[in-house]
Specification:
The protein has 154 residues and is mainly alpha-helical. It has six helices and no strands.
Length: 154
Amino acid sequence: MKPTENPKEVYQDADPVELPENAFRELAEDEGYRPIMHPARDYPEVTPYSVGMGLLLAVIFSAAAAYLGLKVGQVFEAAIPIAIIAVGLSGALKKENPLGQNVIIQSIGACSGVRCRSHIHPARTLHSSGMGLLLAVIFSAAAAYLGLKVGQVF
């Protein structure tokens, strides 16, 4: 699509079901690309469903990552499983145009591993050096909070 063209005039047809054939190659000089999410349409992205499901999956995967981090000493990245669950749920619930909502669900849910890594590894290290587990977790959370505040100042 040329920069001067109006997207509403170029894309008059319905939303495509699959990627166009020119999605996997370089476009010719006069060739336009038709994206999956129509640029002239408004798609639901930040909805109560997407935010709620993202928070629910973040809580579930945070608990799982925290358990594994304390038990085995290694946490996992939850972005891909959460993305797969989001796509599966949107299909099972027959959501219309779910792509934007699935991106929000995955973005919120993917924070679970990061949150756990910032607390679990220091807590496990402190606990293995002789500090009680509860005290190690509290100390780790306080250090993370202090780091957050220092980061806001600088």
